Fold this protein.
Amino acid sequence: MSIDLKIMRPGKLAGLLNSTRLGEVTSEARVRRNIVRAGLRVGDSTKVNVLAYAAWLVAAWHARRCPGAVGEGLTGYDALRDAAAARNRRLSATGREISPLPDTLNPARRLSCELDFRRFCETYFPAAFTLAWSGDHLKVISKIEAAVLHGGQFAQAMPRGSGKTTLAEVACIWATMYAHRRFVCLIGATAERARSMLESMKTEFECNDLLLEDFPEAVYPIHRLERIHNRAGGQTLDGRPTRILWTADKVVKAPNDLSAPRAPAMYHV
Amino acid sequence: MDADQPNSQQLNPAALTAAEAARLLTAAGGRPVGVEVVQAAIDAGAPLLADGRLNLVELMAWLEKDLAVKP
C-alpha cells in the first residue's frame, strides 16, 4: 500500500503512527494539538503535511532535550513556556539536591562506639545521660547491647523516671546508625506514647549536632529538610533520591551508605 | 543542489540514513535539521532497521512517544 506522505488527515496520520512496531504512541487529538503548536506551515484541522510534521517533531524533541536550542522547533508562546518550564526544572533540581555530603568529623569517635552501647550513650547523648550509671543501668545497657548485636530477648523493669524510655530510644538509634539492625520495633503502651517516643528520636536526628558530625550520611539529609518534611520526597544527593520518609507515624531514614543497595532504616508506630 | 546529493523526491522514507533524514526534514520543514540531531535521536533509542537505516514513520512514532512522556 503506497502512502502519500505529503498530505494526510490528522486522524489517518495518528493511525499511521500507531501502526509501527512501537504500538500505540499517539492519538488524533494529540496530533491535532501538535499541528496547532507547529502552525500553518505543517497543516490545519483537515490536513497535515507529514514531512513538515516530522520536521517539527524532530525540532520539538531536540528543543526539549537541549533547552538551549529552544527556538529551533517552537515559536512564540510555546517557546517561552518551554523555556520557563526548563528553567523551573533546573531550579527545582538544584533546590532538591543537597550535595556535597560532609565528611565524618571524628571517625575515631564514631568507630569507638560501634560495639559499645554505653560509650555511644555517653558520647553522643551527654545531655540525656547526665548522672552516673547505677549498677542496674549498666546491667540493662549490657543486655541491650547483646540483644542488638547478637539477638535475644529480655524483660526490663526499672523504677519510673530512671531512664528506661531514653535508653530504649537511644538503643534504636545506635542499632540503626551502625546498621546493626535495619528494622526496629519500639513499642509503646499506647499509640500516642509510641508517637511521643518516635517524636523524641526525630528531635535527636534533627537537633543532635554530634550525630550530625559523625553520621552525616544518615543525619545530614534530615537536617537539610529544615523541618519542612514534604521536601523529603524530592530530596536528592548526587542526583539520587535519599528516600527519606518523615511523618508523624513513620520514619524511613536514608541508608547509612547511600552508594550501597541496602534497605534504609525504618521506625514505625 | 549537489549532483551527488539526491533530492527529497529520490529518497525512500522507509529507509533513510541519518544524513538523508536530516536533508529530507530540512527541505520539508524549511528550517535546518542537523545530522547530529537525527543521530542524537538514534542514540537516545529511535528504532533502526536491520541495515541501520531509519524508517521515517517509525522515527515519527518514536518521537511522538518520547514527547508524550513528561520531562
